[in-house]
Amino acid sequence: MRQRFSESASQRVSDSTPRRFADSLIRLPSAVRSLHSAFFLLPSLLFLLLFFFLPLARILSLSLDASVLTSANFQTASHVLRFTLYQAALSTLLTFLLGLPSAFLFARFDFRGKPLLRALTAVPFMLPTVVVAAGFNALLGPRGWLTLLLSSLRNTQHATADALPFVGTLTAILLAHVFYNTSIVIRIVGAALTHLDPRLEQAARTLGADSFRVWTRLTLPLLRGPLLASGLLVFLFDFSSFGVILLLGGPQFSTLETEIYIQAMRLLNLPMAALLSIIQLLCTLAVSILYERVVARTLVPTTPKPSTARPPKSLRERAFVFGLSFLLFTFFVLPLISIPLRSLARTEADRGQRDEVQYGLTFDYYSELFVNRRHSVFYVPPAEAARNSLTYAIATVLLSLALGFPAAAALKRQTVFSKFIDPFLILPLGASAVTLGLGYLITFNQPLIIGHWSLITSPLIVPLAHTVIALPFVIRVLQPALASIPERLRHAAASLGASPLRVWQTVDWPIVSRALLAASTFAFTVSLGEFGAASLLARPDLPTLPLAIARFLSQPGGLNYGQAMAMSTILMLVTLLGILLIEKIRLSGSEEF
Amino acid sequence: MKKFLLLTAFCILLSACAPQATATQSPIEMEVLAPPTAQTVTPLTSGEPLPLTVMTHSSFAISEGALAAFEQANNVKVTFLNGGDVGEALNKAILSKDAPLADVFYGVDNTFLSRALEAGIFEAYASPALANVPAEFRLDPENRATPVDYGDVCINYDRAFFAKNELPVPTTLGDLIRPEYNGMLVVENPATSSPGLAFLLATVAHFGEPGYLDFWRSLRANGLVVVNDWETAYYTNFSASSGRGPQTMVVSYATSPAAEVIYSEVVIEQSPSASILGPQTCFRQIEFVGILAGTRQRAAAERFVDFMLSLTFQEDLPLQMFVLPVDPFAILPDSFYQFNEYPTDPAILAPDVIAANRDRWIQEWTDAVLR
Q1: Residue A370 to residue B19, Cβ atoms within 8 A
Q2: Using a CB-CB distance cutoff of 8 angstroms, which residues of chain A are in contact with residue B269?
Q3: Model confidence pLDDT, tens digit, residues A79-99
């Protein structure tokens, strides 16, 4: 309602001649603006051209041949595509069901443990699927705690007999997607909600609107931009999801991404993999263009406000805060906590006695991480794996911000050029990691510059690949925030005599800093948890934490399993500390406002 | 600041966990690796070491001692490249064959061998060390691919469960469809997993076509559980692993029972699992090494192939990768005898037969078992 009002109001204003004249003085002609935005987009575009489009084009043109264009193949593809779309849509819907109230909770209320809970919701985002699967299994699996609890409540002896089917069901896929991606909604929508002036809602309420009406007629329309942006990201993530489908969904389910993997890496049928990759890319492009159409010019200027969060007052508010934070805590902590617990628990040796599991406390798995028992060349102490992961992650954050910030700034105003280019910037999210990895291989294997040095064998390749994945995120998070900064505030500040730096400091920075933080958190976690590209590209002597975990899990034995759990716990702690640290910087950075 | 302190505390905690080098003796350390015997070869150069790049799959491992022995004896510096899993690594080698990433490629097995040979990624090299290798492993008469090790994919079972319930352990594949084993077996999807594919090949070798499909349909009716990867099958579904899952039999490797003992949390007398070793119940995977066509380090590459067949490497293999050496004179670690038994009559299929039918078998299996 308000939006429509403000639009027509601004139309009315700009219809008046003096204002139009002033506008033309301030605003550059559109051709110049296009050029201007192209200039800032250039680094990102060049980067994606070199590290995304070129390798992709090379592998696709090398693999694809006409023999694959049969109706049987298209039938298979459309069958897989339908399920891929179906599960992605359903997962996105469910993610919003939990994510929206949570975003509201974090944006509007202060309560004890809020920073920790907020950070916790972001932890799943970077956990390798193998670990999450282990976590869910420890909870909901045939011998999971919840299963055991239920069966003891029902007084049955054999837990196995009436276990809830979880792994291998659609529920498992959906639940895991919600678990992974709620953080996206919380961060993007939450950031916007924080800037939304609560006085608007108060006014609407005073005018007699109930809270449902306030939400549907006022808040949600105002949040349309960030809602769509996070919706796009969540959908694309679910659309190209790999590990969750493979490990929690099981062999009954196949999506484009898993099918590409099977065709390319197991059947060595590169033409079919290329066909599926192209279908996946086209779908991603279609979704991005659709998004572009819908989101166009719906951004609402926001007033920079430090924070509108306050402690809950009324009983209803308290019930909401308590209830939801309890729910979130349960949902995020229960599957996660089973991993550190398992890393400290020794199961007694008589494994055949399946009804009497005995646990003992042990630190052996952690101390074992520091011992190279096999004297293996590829042994990596945990601190070194953590250092590799952190180095890659920090490089990814810096690189993706350096490229993404100018791009987002260029895209904040719609031009013909930016409208055309925008969907292509999202495309890396919908590209199969397998296809891209193979593309890297054939593109960057030629020795470059000096003698034997080639990019594919250098440690640089990992943060470069991670930046390709993180960049769409960074741009998608920064762009709505930058676009929401009201131009008139800048003019007002300038006309009051503020220097350009001062204007930027007081007007832009409060909004920008928050978005930058959200963007860095994403880039950081994307890199920290990324497995597919790293497993194809990382050097065996410089493995990341997820690769080290996978190495332990690839051999039998209690010690290997325990060490995998211990290493996963370290990964969780590193991430948690990283996120808390980033949020700490934010709080100290925005105190002046 | 508090967070920094926390981080520091966390780091200190981590390093405090690090034990003294010999604080605890684990089974694997009792099997002290024999000091590598000096090789009687002349170094390839006397100046700067020659650089040699070896591409492997991600399960490859080698001990520091064995590698150092090779590097010193030949004056070569080895760099390893991670190729991902077996299929990924092979794809890498095939796609980059015009400008090879490495000089040597290790890790193609008999289920993918024909594909590698067809693609022409290897240069022939008849290593003198091949003389010790039994003919059954030498699948490429042109010596483009040299056998290094083998492993048998077998069904592991939970010893305690079968003993406690006084249930006889199945001895043939055919036994598995009997009602008393309902819901007890977990296998990996042959479309996504190497051991899964190997086990499918064992059933093809044993039952023939189309009998193997009838067997799989009966297995399905008998509560067969299928998952996509070995990690899930073993650690989530198998009852004798640390995951303590619901299935008492899993498709894994013949050496897994020994690994359970070597990597046990506590010293145990007996493995919690054992393999079903009846005739034609296991499938033999043989892994090969080859010199990549177009290498500029042919001499060093030949030396590396020789090294992989030397006793130093052949005896280093078992504890590093839990596979068995092709050299019958290589001595296995004690635990490989003490806690483990091996199949005497594993199923075998010729690489060209596998290459010609693999995709069709996987498709037919998918239709019969998953749809």
Answers
A1: yes
A2: none
A3: 999 999 999 999 999 999 999
